[in-house]
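> forwarded from #structure-qc
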């Protein structure tokens, strides 16, 4: 019988679709990368999604984040993403956490319940905690490296963290993974050298912050990166594609 996943089934087959329906994937960070990852997972037929992010949609997110529109500004990203998933696949079980993932919130999650984890968060501390928690539970994880300050969507690669180059975030992650004895880590990274964003006081978040009330403000970051609609989205789609292919054992 035809349904919203019929065209995918033509490629993957019925057994793979059945497997995806019974998989649970956690996406940490529902921003420019994570939002598109959630979209692709939902449209691929993944049956359960955990969405983790404490942030609300800001007007400055509208240029690149899938769930960010003028109507959703001020709403929690996980709530908007959940509503979108349910419009795509009402049978998908979506659980949301309005949580900023760090070591002090680790206990909120049982990683053994997940079939896969996508790391799309910004902080190195959070990323490393995610990697260690997933590894301890025997759960596969894929991490997104830096997608800000880039303009070339064709420069993304999937590799082990120790095979990466150019990306400043990947360099830090390599060093920290080595310190912790993490021998391998699947990542999506860009070989494009980052661009230094303009310093324009007229549109400076530091001087004219418009974050919604109650939001963890972006001004706490050391640097506020520039970004586009067509770069972080590609990283998210690649990450989701890797998850789906790994879950069904599809490798070319």
């Amino acid at each position: 019988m035809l349904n919203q996943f019929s065209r995918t089934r033509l490629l993957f087959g019925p057994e793979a679709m059945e497997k995806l329906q019974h998989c649970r994937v956690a996406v940490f960070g529902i921003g420019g990368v994570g939002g598109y990852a959630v979209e692709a997972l939902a449209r691929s037929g993944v049956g359960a999604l955990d969405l983790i992010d404490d942030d609300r949609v800001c007007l400055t997110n509208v240029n690149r984040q899938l769930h960010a529109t003028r109507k959703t500004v001020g709403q929690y990203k996980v709530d908007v993403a959940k509503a979108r998933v349910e419009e795509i696949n009402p049978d998908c079980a979506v659980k949301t956490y309005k949580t900023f993932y760090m070591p002090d919130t680790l206990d909120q999650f049982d990683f053994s319940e997940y079939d896969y984890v996508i790391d799309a968060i910004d902080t190195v501390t959070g990323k490393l905690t995610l990697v260690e928690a997933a590894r301890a539970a025997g759960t596969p994880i894929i991490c997104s490296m830096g997608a800000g300050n880039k303009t070339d969507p064709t420069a993304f690669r999937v590799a082990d963290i120790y095979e990466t180059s150019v990306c400043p975030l990947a360099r830090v992650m390599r060093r920290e993974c080595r310190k912790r004895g993490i021998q391998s880590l699947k990542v999506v990274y860009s070989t494009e050298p980052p661009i230094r964003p303009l310093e324009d006081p007229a549109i400076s978040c530091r001087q004219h912050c418009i974050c919604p009330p109650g939001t963890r403000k972006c001004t706490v970051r050391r640097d506020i990166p520039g970004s586009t609609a067509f770069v972080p989205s590609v990283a998210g789609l690649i990450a989701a594609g890797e998850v789906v292919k790994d879950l069904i054992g599809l490798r070319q």
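QC bot note: The chain has a mean pLDDT of 94. DSSP finds seven helices and seven strands in the chain.
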